[in-house]
Amino acid sequence: MPKKGKITADRQTMPLQDAKIRSRNFNEVSLGYTEEQALLEASRCLTCKKPLCMDGCPVDVDIPGFIKFVQAENRDFQKAIDKVKEKNNLPAICGRVCPQESQCEKYCVLGKKSQPVAIGRLERFVADWEMAHGDSQSNPVKPSGRKVAVVGSGPSGLTVAADLAVLGHEVTIMEALHIPGGVLVYGIPEFRLPKSIVQREIDNIKKLGVTVRTNMVVGKINTIDELLGKDYDAVFIGTGAGLPYFMDIPGENFNGVYSANEFLTRNNLMKGYLFPDYLTPIKIGDKVAVIGAGNVAMDGARTALRLGAKECYIIYRRSENEMPARAEEIEHAIEEGVQLHLLTSPVEIIGDENGRVKALICQKYELGEPDASGRRSPIAIPGSEYEMEMDTVVMALGQGPNPMVSQTTPDLQTNKWGNIIADEATGQTSKPGVFAGGDIVTGAATVIKAMGAGKKAAKAIHEYLSCL
């Protein structure tokens, strides 16, 4: 076994299901490191005195600290996962879906001359090791006598709840759907994030004393004011970004046009892929177009193939260089047979006599000067329209904030997009005792960024409660 910090091994490749096999099943694509691979990968870490990788972690995990426990001379995987969980309440999830390449691994010193240490894969390894070797333990804490309501059970809500419970506060999570987990269960497909993993992480948070109440639509059953006025000393809002966007082109109301939210929710939360065992039918036909090129679009396209589509297209008005999805997700999608139609955008959806999608009219584009985000602006090419036969169209154009809570809380300030205005460092909103974080504040972002907002809010809520 090589000594730590001596670059004698290449970055370890993640074992995967074969592309032809996995494109027709919903089993997890990435199989995880073996112990030997984890030891080899951990040996590449230089254990820097000034670990720049930590600068890229939104929840401040002690990355060299946990990797040191994985390295061969230590090989103490329990201490490794304990070190991770000092900061990260959802390590098995983050190790699977977080974009480490643009966060912690982006700053890894090895990345300057070689490939960065596979930090996310090592995080997944130690989290999975703990799941396979016993339950996580929690120490009893002295109750503070304060109660907090957490609205939404996505990444930010789960993080806030866990951190506050450890500090002795009585926390109740209120989830509108019948299963907790938020986007982790309704948005991310089984083949990328098994729901058993999500449930296990939620069970660990429950062991801290957190109560989870499902079918609780805050804004209908209770308002924020009613929660504060009745039983709770503070409220955290983490309701996410669940309002789908459409293009406002002719034909979007035909049968066979889905928002990505609905398409993925039918599959993931309502188990549409297990029909008829679960009674959630999804008729997609042979040809499916997914409009957009983010991670959600890749999830939608790869799901369509697994549901039986013979052809699936990603239609995106910029080039591959501008695609916002993770490089790994794009690579996996192409391996599985997803076809890219780039510099292209639909202008109309054509339906048949029964009101069902039968074709897509697309227009070609070229790239002009960079827009406000730094990406080159797409410019339509006149007269370049063409028709594609299509059975199903999935709109994966992003999503906005769920408006239900803000609409029933008049003194809660929002911006022009409907996002709740909250202090970036604390999550404090315009309403005393009410905090917010995650996608409801920032717009759709990553799991780990939502968790980072949750940790900041938990600290601020604790300080607020301590002053009551």
Show unreliable segments. none
Instruction: Please report the number of helical segments.
Output: 16
Bulk shape: globular
Q: Can you list the strand order of the major beta sheet? A: 3-2-1-4-16
For the sheet with most strands, the description reads:
5 strands, parallel
- Give the strand content: 15-25%
Q: Could you tell me how far the N terminus lies from the C terminus, measured between alpha carbons in angstroms?
A: 56 Å
Structural category = alpha/beta
Oligomer: single chain
**Radius of gyration, whole Å:** 23 Å
Quote the average pLDDT.
93
Number of beta strands? 16
Query: What proportion of the residues is helical, as a percent range?
Result: 25-40%
What does this structure look like?
This protein is α/β, with parallel strands linked by helices and 468 residues long. The protein contains 16 helices and 16 strands. The strands form four sheets. A five-stranded parallel sheet has the order 3-2-1-4-16, with helices on both faces. A hairpin with a 5-residue loop joins β11 and β12. The N and C termini lie far apart (56 Å). The model has no long low-confidence stretch (mean pLDDT 93).
Summarize the structure.
The protein has 468 residues and is of the alpha/beta class. It has helices spanning 19-22, 35-42, 63-70, 77-85, 91-97, 119-133, 155-166, 183-186, 195-206, 224-230, 260-268, 295-306, 327-336, 404-407, 439-442, 447-466; strands at 147-151, 170-174, 211-213, 234-237, 243-244, 257-259, 287-291, 311-316, 339-342, 344-351, 357-370, 376-380, 386-389, 392-395, 399-400, 434-436.
